Amino acid sequence: MRQQDNSHILETLRNSLTSVWDLLESENVQELMINGPDDIWVEQGGKLTRVDRSLSATQIESAIHILGRINNKDVIEHTSDSIVDARLEGLRIAAAIRPISVTGPSLAIRKHMQVVLSLENYVATGAITEEVAQVLRRIVREHKNILVVGGTSSGKTTFLNALIREVPEHERIVTIEDTQELKVSAPNWVPLEANEQAGITCRQLLKLALRYRPDRILVGEVRGPEAYDLLQAANTGHDGVMATLHASSAKQGLTRLETLILTANVGWPHEAVRVSVAETFHYIVFLARRNGVRQVEQILQMQGYDHKQQQYQFDLLLDRKEQHA
C-alpha cells in the first residue's frame, strides 16, 4: 500500500482512538492495550498500568475495521478475517472482534523503538559490564553465530540491534523479518519481509537470501520450520548469523530451537539435530525483564555435544539468573 494511503489510515485511526492517542505519543509508553471499552492498559517503563480512560465498543471496532484496510480485507465476524495483524508508521498492531475476542473488540498497539541502543548504552545502565561488551564486540566481528533469546518484551530485538551496530560497514547484510524492526546502518543492506497472508514465508526468504550473496544473514525472530533453513545457511559458509528466539532461559532456547528445526520434517534424528545446533551456534545470549528492568542474564559459549551424557557442553560466561532463583 502506498505511503499516502497509510497516512490517511493513520489519521482515521487517530480519530477513532482520540481519547487514548496521546498515550501512544508519550515517549514513556511502549505499548497500549485496549481489552475493552473501560479496560485500557499501558506498558510504561517496563511496567503494566491500568489507565483511567474509556472508549466505546463502537470506537474500538471502528478502529479494527480501519486497520483491516491495511491488509486489504474486510473484518468479518466468525471468520479468519476477524483477526487483524498490521504494521503502520512505527506501530505493530494486533486486534480481534467477537467471537474471537470473547468480551468484545480488543487490540494491542506496540511502538517500535526509534532510538537504537549501543552496547555502550547497556554498559551505562548496568545491563552488561564493559568486559562482557568487549566479548560481544569481538564475537560479532569474528562472525560467530549468535542466538539472542528471552521472553515476551524482554528486549531481544533491541539488543540484537545493538549487536548489529558492531557489524563492519563493508559487509553485505540481508535481514529477514515478519515485521521490520531491525536497524542496519551498513550501506549494503537488503531488508526482506515475510507476509503469511500473501503466502510469503520466512523459509522462502531464507532460501532467497542465500542467492543474494550475503556476508551476513539476520533473522528478526525464529518461530517455525525456518529454524532448519537458518541452520543450513549457517552451515554453508554464511557464518555470522544472528537471530532472536522466544525462550525463558539460555538452555531452553537451545531446546526450543531443536523443536522448531524438527517441525521442518526433514527426517533428522533428534540427536543429529542437537549435534548440529551445538556445532552451528557459538553463543546464546539470554535477556530477561525483572521488575521492569531489562538486562542480559546469561551468556553461553557452546563447546559441542556430549553423546554419552546426551547433553550440550558449554561454558557459562555470564549467569545472573541464579541471583533471581
Concise account of the structure shown:
The chain is an alpha/beta fold. It has ten helices and 14 strands. The strands form two sheets. The chain has an eight-stranded mixed β-sheet, with helices on both faces. The chain has a six-stranded antiparallel β-sheet with strand order 3-2-1-6-5-4.
What descriptors fit this protein?
325 residues; alpha/beta; Beta-Lactamase; Rossmann fold; eight-stranded mixed beta sheet; 29% strand; globular
Task: Please tell me about this protein's structure.
It is a single chain. This protein is α/β, with parallel strands linked by helices. It has two domains: about 5-110, 2-Layer Sandwich (Beta-Lactamase); about 120-325, 3-Layer(aba) Sandwich (Rossmann fold). The chain contains ten helices and 14 strands. The strands form two sheets. It has an eight-stranded mixed beta sheet, sandwiched between helices. Strands 3-2-1-6-5-4 form a six-stranded antiparallel beta sheet.
Q: Name the beta content range.
A: 25-35%
Low-confidence segments, given as residue ranges, are none
Q: What distance separates the N and C termini?
A: 48 Å
Helix/strand order, N-terminal first:
HHEEEHEEEHHEHEEHEHEHHEEE
CATH top level of the largest domain is Alpha Beta
* SS element count, helices: 10
CATH superfamily of the largest domain: P-loop containing nucleotide triphosphate hydrolases
Trace the largest sheet across and list its strands.
9-8-10-11-7-12-13-14
Tertiary shape: globular
Which structural class matches the secondary elements? alpha/beta
CATH T-level topology of the largest domain: Rossmann fold
CATH architecture of the largest domain, by name, is: 3-Layer(aba) Sandwich
Mean pLDDT metric: 90
Cα-atom radius of gyration = 21 Å
The domain count comes to 2
| Residues in helices, as a percent range | 25-40%
